[in-house]
Amino acid sequence: MDIKLETPWDGTPDISARIVVAISRVSSVLRAGMWEFATAENLNPTQAEILQLLKDRSTGVRLSWLAAQLSVSPASASDSVTALVAKGLVRKARAEDDGRASALWLTGQGKAMVEKMMSALGFADDAAAALDAEVKDQLLVGLFKLIAQLQKSERFPALRACLSCRFFEANVNPGSAAPHHCALVKAPLPIAFLRIDCAEHQATDPATERRNWEAFA
């Protein structure tokens, strides 16, 4: 009978479990910073997140999209939006693509509030900036690969990421330092320059997006 010898590392969780715990801890720190800012500005955390989601969006977004991004009910999102409109931080008007529907934009005051929020959360950006360049590149690629895997669960909300953009051309130069291409700026796209959230993003068709994420995974 084989006898399994005990080691000092018995009971250590799988590395995948430790990755999830680490991401959860980082998320908790960022959330705490967001809540601290929101409280100081007489906002609730959901209102602060809505302002962040509306950042750099020249095209108004629908309430249903906000609810999906926040993983809350449309009614809950509506209550937060109503409060932000009353505070003068969000503007609600007819959608540009459908006059029967409403869309949401940041007001000038709302944009200023978001800039203030980004400054308050700058500690996280400072921490990431302090990493070695190689570590940052590896971390970015790893996070993209993790998102690609999460996409398969259909639990991850829509992103304005390169891989879901109609301007993204995958593996145009395979094996090179810039394997992809951005048709918007007409230039090779190094992996280190891939964006999670791009203001110039235009959605591609679902089939192409799915292929892009699956290839990246």
Automatic annotation (TrEMBL):
Q: Which UniProt keywords apply?
A: DNA-binding, Transcription, Transcription regulation
The reply to whether Transcription regulation figures as a keyword in the UniProt entry is: yes
Residue span, HTH marR-type domain: 16-149
Give TM segment ranges: none
Task: Write down the Pfam families for this protein, in alphabetical order.
Answer: MarR_2 (PF12802)
Which protein are we looking at?
A: Winged helix-turn-helix transcriptional regulator
Gene source species:
Massilia aquatica
